[in-house]
Amino acid sequence: MAAAPGRGGIHRDGRAAYLFLAPALLFFCVFLVLPFLFAVVLAFSDWGGFDLGTIEFAGVSNFADVLRFDGSFVRPILVNTLLFAVGSVTLATFGSVLVAYCIDRLSFQGFWRVLYFLPVVATVVAIGNVWKMMYQPAGLINGVLNKLGVNSIGFLSDSSYALPAVTVVHAWASIGGAVLILTAGLKAIPEMYYEAAEVDGANSWRMFWQITLPLLRPSLLFVLITQFIGGLQSFALIIVMTTDGGPVNSTNVAAFEMYQQAFKFGAWGTASAMAMVLFVIILAITLLQLWIARRRGEETS
Predict the structure, then answer these.
(1) How many CB atoms lie within 10 A of CB 172?
(2) Is 22 domain-assigned?
(3) What pairing do the DSSP bridges indicate for beta strands 45-46 and 56-57?
(4) What is the pLDDT of residues 254-283, one digit of tens each?
């Protein structure tokens, strides 16, 4: 029988573990913890973004300006952000579930997964510019509509269509990553459940609704949370596909407004206050999703 390691050996193993973790912990502190703490300080300060000695304490005035109901951040920027996130999450989730379910029943599954994952590894600038050309009055989409007898639509020039148009692009670009997660979740479902349901005479829709979706809940929850966080933080597509969040501020979202306040107007305190508000919203929505999922899991168990 092997002797148990002594106390000195345990301490040596602990020091070795911390030594190996040190680079990751250092990276985490320098690039995540310290910037977050600095953003919290700036949220209660006035700073132009150049000299650290000019930071002046402003109290909660930045938050008061940001959260004014008649201000531009709450309406329409925060409303646009929530609409953009909800729309992209809905489209991406339904699309990824459908695609993953189909891929799971096709041959050459690796090829199809790679094909749908390509938009994830493509740059946002490339994706935005390609779709921007497709949305043009003389672009591919309007060309198809004209062939069907529908007049050209100003997808990016009409305030009624601009936000939905960008939302569709974001959802399309997000499907690939969700498909990989959901296909892995589908592979983890034991085949015996489907065989037993088939023996009982269940059709494909009944098996999908009563077997696939309940057992896919952990993967779906992860996809919903990550997609929603990505939707609330997204702003690169807005920069590429629109002109300063236009037309008429219809595509201006919270992350893009933070970028403008900090780098265009030099209002770093206002931008940091917006970031803190968005952080609280993301945290609250994430906790709500986890609570709903846990409650449904308890009800079905």
Answers:
(1) 16
(2) no
(3) antiparallel
(4) 999 999 988 888 889 999 999 999 999 999
